[in-house]
Write a structure and sequence with these properties.
33% of the residues lie in helices and 20% in strands. It contains ten helices and 14 strands. Strands 3-4-5-6-9-10-11-12-13-14 form a ten-stranded mixed sheet, covered by helices on one side.
């Protein structure tokens, strides 16, 4: 049977895997063994599953395939940031980023190949949308970034941010399954508290995050405090105005009791005045938040410029005067197009 006509074993749930093995006269415990090979050990070859009989490995190989990703390119920034391009089974390229800091390493992971949102400050939107990534493709990025962290720095990933290519909440079912696999003790066993999901905001799915008790952190990419400005940089905002988003964020906080992060990209002479800071402070009265102010990173063909540091600090100082927790997030990997808003599958 050719690989193209076989089912990717990574798409099976544990129950489906167990049913297959029982139907092939295997003991029930074999399902957990295979599952751990796939998700705890990151195995992507049936031949490596050495505690299985040769006949069972042959049965699996005859019935299933792996649609594994391969490393396409790797670039290292002057600041130590590493960008890795992965080639998928259908030849699409996605990018992930490894960001080292003192005593910790963050992995930035993609959830879609391309992006449909067309935000006017982000390179990913310029390549268009191709497809959602599977749960296994999200998982494999985390696995491979963790391996790279161990190889380069001798420590595992400290944090995982779902801030790469694509809008995570547009791929919610696969995102949730990937998180379940990564956090499962029979998977990678990484705490959900080490994850942050970043989204431009889809009210229905924000509520679902709360209802499903997804225990990750959540970051809302706001970037403008009124609909006129936000519509101009995030066209999707026309479907869900800020008032709808605020209502869903209130629901999220009330349901989970968790503080979330508001991400705010500072664009020179567009959204970086003290009036903008005042509007942001007023919006944040609705719930307890932490604010990350983000530097704009240059993207070819975009007219925006980075706010001057003096203005960024004035913006931060005003917010802090309103008793808000504020951080200016340091941009990493700009020289290799690995910083926030720069991922587009290019070298």
């Amino acid at each position: 049977m050719s690989g193209s006509s076989q089912t990717d074993i990574l798409t099976l749930s544990f129950e489906e895997l167990e049913d297959f093995l029982l139907a092939n006269q295997e003991k029930r415990f074999r399902a957990k063994q295979v599952y751990q090979w796939l998700w705890k050990k990151g195995c992507r070859s049936f031949g490596e599953m050495t505690n299985l009989s040769a006949s069972l490995r042959a049965t699996l190989a005859n019935s299933f395939t792996f649609r594994a990703m391969t490393e396409n390119h790797l670039q290292t920034s002057r600041d130590g940031t590493v960008k890795i391009g992965f080639r998928l089974h259908d030849e699409l390229i996605i990018e992930s980023v490894l960001i080292p800091a003192e005593n910790r390493i963050t992995g930035c992971v993609s959830t879609q190949a391309g992006c449909a949102l067309g935000c006017t400050f982000c390179a990913t939107g310029t390549i268009g949308f191709y497809r959602n990534l599977s749960a296994a493709e999200i998982f494999d990025q985390v696995w491979l970034l963790n391996e790279k962290a161990l190889q380069l720095h001798q420590i595992p990933l400290s944090n995982i941010v779902l801030m790469g290519m694509g809008e995570p909440l547009f791929n919610y079912p696969n995102l949730k399954r990937a998180i379940d696999l990564i956090t499962d003790p029979d998977g990678m066993g990484i705490s959900p508290q080490r994850f942050t999901i970043s989204s431009i905001g889809i009210p229905k799915i924000i509520r679902q995050l709360a209802d499903d008790q997804v225990k990750t952190h959540f970051a809302f990419s706001l970037h403008a405090t009124n609909d006129l400005k936000r519509n101009s940089i995030i066209p999707f905002n026309k479907q869900y105005p800020i008032s709808d988003l605020v209502a869903s964020l209130k629901y999220y906080h009330n349901k989970t009791g968790k503080r979330f992060t508001i991400e705010y990209l500072l664009l020179k002479d567009f959204n970086d005045t003290l009036d903008d800071a005042r509007e942001l402070a007023d919006l944040c009265r609705n719930f307890p938040v932490k604010i990350n102010l983000i530097e704009f990173n240059p993207v070819d063909g975009f007219d925006f410029q980075r706010s001057e540091m003096k203005r960024m600090k004035e913006f931060k100082d005003f917010l802090e005067s309103r008793n808000l927790i504020v951080n200016i997030r340091k941009s990493r990997g700009k020289d290799i197009d690995a910083a926030c808003g720069q991922l587009a599958g290019r070298t």
